[in-house]
Amino acid sequence: MGVTIHPTAIVDPKAELADGVSIGPFAIVEADVQIGEGTQVAQHAFIANGARIGKSCTIHHSAVIANVPQDLKFIGTEKTFVEIGNNTTIREFATVHRATVHSYKGNAGTHDGVTKIGSNCLIMAYAHVAHDCTLGDNVILSNGVQVAGHCTVESFVTVGGLTGLHQFTMIGSYSMIGAVLLVSKDVPPYSLIGDAPPRFIGINRIGLERRGFDPEMIRKIRNAFKLLYYSGLNFSDALARFEQEGANDTPQLEAIIKFVRRSDRGIIGS
Question: Is 23 helix (H, G, I), strand (E, B) or coil?
Fold first, then answer.
């Protein structure tokens, strides 16, 4: 199939382009770049040093991947990266910045100089993913979402348009966050977040149904959050009771316990 590069594009000969890659008009691809098989890079996109892009991705026009981080600790000589999985779409004018070199160990694990976006993600127009963030698979960031540095967004999360995530925030899997919000606390898995200021307003029932959760599991998740938020117990006591009732035997429920226990910022209120 070969590689297709428009005559007006600027592609460093050291860039590694797999079979079927297409580079559009006026796009720029720097030297330390790897792009997987079948990925399409549209006009005016900028793929900077440190980009590692998987197979069958689509990078729309004027998107910026792996530019230097907006971090005053970054001095410009660090060798850091952006990793993007397979089948991920980055829409027009979205920006994904590479990591800073310093290692940091926090509530969401160790950050090692890589900003990561998983497979099958959709990063819509004008969204921003800052340095040292980790996004799981099947994440949707709607138009204008701003993800600050060191955030972790687990798999199957949807974030509504123009919402901002405070630095170091964790967003649990299968959760959904509404539009035009500022989220500064951790969001447990399976949560539905809305209102202003943002708060837990229920579980993401429709999202769970669409992802194949059966009615009995959805009922168990709903009961878990009733205990967590509406029992009158503090979070520690609610988790202890939850464990006494055998939640550790169910992986989906155990995920809630582990998430709340490792939260440094504290979880969002109701």
Answer: strand
The answer to whether residue 195 is domain-embedded is no
Residue 215 lies in a domain: yes
Q: Please name which of 43, 94, 42 lies closest in space to residue 67, comparing C-alpha atoms.
A: 94
**How far from chain centre, in Å, is Cα 255?**
18
Say whether both 219 and 164 belong to one domain.
no
The phi-psi region of residue 237 (left if phi > 0; otherwise alpha if psi is between -120 and 50; otherwise beta) is alpha
Number of structural domains, the chain? 2
- What pLDDT tens digit does each residue of the chain (270 aa) get? 799 999 999 999 999 999 999 999 999 999 999 999 999 999 999 999 999 999 999 999 999 999 999 999 899 888 999 999 999 999 999 999 999 976 555 554 455 799 999 999 999 999 999 999 999 999 999 999 999 999 999 999 999 999 999 999 999 999 999 999 999 999 999 999 999 999 999 999 999 999 999 999 999 999 999 999 999 999 989 888 888 887 778 999 999 999 999 999 999 999
Residue 198 domain-assigned (yes or no): no
Quick one: 37 and 166 in the same domain?
yes
Q: Give how far the C-alpha of residue 102 lies from the chain's centroid of Cα atoms, to the nearest Å.
A: 20
Catalytic sites, residue numbers: 131-132, 149
> Does residue 10 sit in the same domain as residue 141?
yes
CATH code of the domain covering residue 238: 1.20.1180.10
- Distance of alpha carbon 85 from its chain centroid, rounded? 12
Range of the domain at 223: 209-262
90 three-state secondary structure = strand
Q: What is the pTM of this model?
A: 0.95
